[in-house]
Write a structure and sequence with these properties.
Keywords: Heme biosynthesis, Oxidoreductase, Porphyrin biosynthesis. It contains eight helices and nine strands. With 286 residues, it is of the alpha+beta class. It has a domain of 78 residues. Helix 1 packs parallel to helix 5.
Length: 286
């Protein structure tokens, strides 16, 4: 089950999505408030070992709208570490215990905003392949430190639209999965207001599953950009900044302790700066 053409198609689409989001975010910076120059992404190629593939790390810091945002793309391959093999075998991935070879490609995005009224956000979509199996995964979730119900409703409505076009039960299933996945057990609370999360998606129809994964990626900008545009010039002070920094501490705790992508990236030898791109630039703990 080589699926070379399918893997190439998926990797190319993830990269195209990265390019479009980067352009949209830089356009938002151009329209953002403040006398400072609009932010721009800094690009760096990443490598996974000598022959394990790599990607593009794109990070913007200190912009008008974004305090830190990363939009990374990668296509990597090699052999799974024993711990990753064990974890995937426990999830029911066939053949992975006997053959550690893998290939994976995807886009990963995390945005931490300048204005505390504008919500932080995460999105990723990916394809994973082993000699015995393939699957898609991803999702998006909104992480405001100051919640606005209208923003939450808008974000979820956009994701519901993407889901409903591909599976009548997808939104309810993947929203529930996100509520469970993005929960911080040691704090007894969610890290944000949710979204959708899915993994190990293989209905047996690669084309249909890829179409759904593209729909999730396509839904991101309509789900998020209006929220950032509406909140980026809202007045704020020390109390709002304090709430933002403390909420970022929650985000950092989750990503370092529980996030599946962080664990996989570090365990498989990917560039640690790219893997840890999701961490906020400044955080605070009470």
């Amino acid at each position: 089950m080589q699926m070379q053409a399918e893997r190439d198609e998926a990797a190319a689409w993830f990269r195209t999505l990265r390019d479009r989001i980067v352009a949209a975010f830089e356009g938002l910076e151009d329209a953002g408030p403040g006398p400072a120059a609009p932010g721009r992404f800094e690009l760096r190629e990443t490598r996974r070992g000598a022959d394990g593939g790599g990607g593009i790390m794109s990070v913007m810091r200190g912009g008008r709208v974004f305090e830190k945002v990363g939009v990374n793309w990668s296509a990597v391959h090699g052999e799974l570490a024993p711990a990753a093999q064990t974890a995937m075998a426990a999830r029911g991935v066939p053949g992975v215990a006997e053959d550690p070879r893998f290939w994976a490609s995807g886009i990963s995005l995390v945005a931490h905003m300048q204005n505390p009224h504008a919500p932080a956000v995460h999105m990723n979509t990916r394809m994973f392949w082993t000699p015995s199996a393939w699957w898609f995964g991803g999702g998006a979730d909104l992480n405001p430190c100051l919640e606005y119900q209208g923003d939450t409703s808008h974000f979820h409505a956009a994701l519901r639209g993407a889901c409903d076009a591909h599976g009548a039960d997808y939104y309810d299933r993947f929203k529930a999965w996100a509520d469970e996945y993005f929960f911080i057990p040691h704090r007894g609370r969610a890290r944000g207001v949710g979204g959708i999360f899915y993994d190990d998606l293989n209905t047996g129809d690669w084309r249909a599953d890829f179409a759904f994964t593209r729909a999730v990626g396509e839904a991101f900008l309509p789900a998020f950009l209006p929220l950032a545009q509406a909140r980026m010039a809202s007045p704020w002070g020390e109390a709002e900044r304090e709430a933002q920094l403390i909420h970022r501490g929650l985000y950092a705790e989750y990503n370092l302790v529980y996030d599946r992508g962080t664990k996989f990236g570090l365990a498989t030898g990917h560039d640690p700066e790219a893997v840890l791109m999701s961490l906020p630039p400044v955080a605070k703990w009470p």
